[in-house]
Amino acid sequence: MSTDSSSDRPVREDERLDSDGVARQRPAYTESQVIMTTVKVVVPFVLTYGLYMMFHGAGSPGGSFQGGALVASVIIMIAFAFGIDATRIWVSNTILVGLATVGVLIFGGLALATIALGGAFLDYSELLILNAIVELPANEWAKWGMETIEIGGIAFIVAGVLMGLFFLLASGYDPEADSGHTAEVRADD
Amino acid sequence: MTMITPLELTLFVFVLITAIMTALFRDVLASIVIFAAYSLGLAVVYTFYRAPDVGLTEAAIGAGITTILLLLTIAKTTRPRHDETFEKINWPAAGVCGLFALVLGATMFAFPAVGDPNAPAMTNPDVTVYYIENAYQETGVENAVTAVLAAYRGFDTFGEAVVVFAAGVASLIVLGREVFA
Predict the structure, then answer these.
(1) Do A25 and B162 touch (CB under 8 A)?
(2) What is the spatial distance between Cα A176 and Cα A13, in angstroms, rounded to a whole number?
(3) Span A38-97, pLDDT tens digits
(4) What pLDDT sits at residue A68?
(5) Domains of chain B and CATH, by start
(6) Which ipTM score applies to this complex?
(7) Is A62 on the interface with B (CB under 8 A)?
(8) Which of B71, B72, B142, B149 to mutate to test the interface with A (most CBs of A within 10 A)?
(9) What's this model's pTM, rounded to 2 decimal places?
(10) A65: contact with B, CB 8 A cutoff
(11) Closest-approach residue (CA) in chain A for B64
């Protein structure tokens, strides 16, 4: 992923201000005191519940897939309440794709590391060599391995992809709003 | 035959009505909102049948994220106005669907009762029984569903995670390019 998207972000801002309301069926964002207040009240609880689900998925229903979706929905709610364009200023495509990529790297990295240590794919018993640092029984190491791929892997992937899809659809068919994606496209060309 | 509780019956009727309404409403916005209600009803049904993991997924993805993405889509495209509220019912299609539901329903009697401890799926010594007996000793997590997903079937989960990642990145690239062109 390219790093130059940070440099053209201010330009995108100006373009968006000029083009607001021109190419759209109706404005995608309406400032509403009710929605803003509701989101302000609800967001801390949703975020806490999402994080709880992620970190506590091993002991109770839920898990990082659902938790990641809830954390993504926090950003989506904020975008709905305070403006999608305003939210994009601090949540760029690069961050979202980076989040998902880091997730795949952590998941795949741990899985391949256990192969490199002589075990099978995701063979948590290989993590026992970490007993040199901390003494833990085998099932505790399996638990921490699972927490790693759940929180560091799946949650990152799900949250990144869902937020990415949201912002992608939000920029929709508005031809002026493309510059957020061009950095990605050029990086992949 | 076990008795159907009033709660179950209410849930079934709710899910059925919202499903039919989703298909019948002409207005896309109305369909999307009712579809969200259908997903939420389904999430409660899953939770009622002791599948809270599935219920949470249905609530978060089906009722939450899908609804938001669909709403965004109609906000960014056109939503034609209609004079009539409901679609005209295509009776041949409805007949075929009804027949299909009847055929599926006929197989229902071959299923074991919900929660039957003697059901084949519950007594399989290599799968369910093994997980229930060994999941905690081997993986150290209390939620056997998590143990299956992240440990016993970790390779499958990795495949699913990569599919989500690939689908997300592909839509970012394809849609980004389409908007750009």
Answers:
(1) no
(2) 11
(3) 999 999 999 999 999 988 888 888 888 899 999 999 999 999 888 888 888 888 888 888
(4) 92
(5) 1-115 (1.20.120.1200), 124-181 (no CATH)
(6) 0.82
(7) yes
(8) B72
(9) 0.79
(10) yes
(11) A73
Q: Check CB contact under 8 Å for B142 and A58.
A: yes
C-alpha B118/C-alpha B132 separation (Å) is: 15
Cβ separation of A63 and B142 shorter than 8 Å?
Answer: no
Residue in A122, A150, A180 closest to B155 by CB: A122
Q: How confident is the model at residue A85, as a pLDDT?
A: 83
CA distance B136 to B144: 8
Q: Which chain B residues are Cβ-neighbours of A69 within 8 angstroms?
A: 57, 60-61, 64-65
Residues B46-77 have pLDDT tens digits of 999 888 889 999 999 999 899 988 988 888 77
| Number of neighbouring beta carbons within 10 Å of residue B167 | 12
DSSP per-residue string spanning A114-162 = HHHTTS-TT-GGGGGGGGGTS---HHHHHHHHHHIIIIIIIHHHHHHHH
Mean pLDDT of A121-130: 84
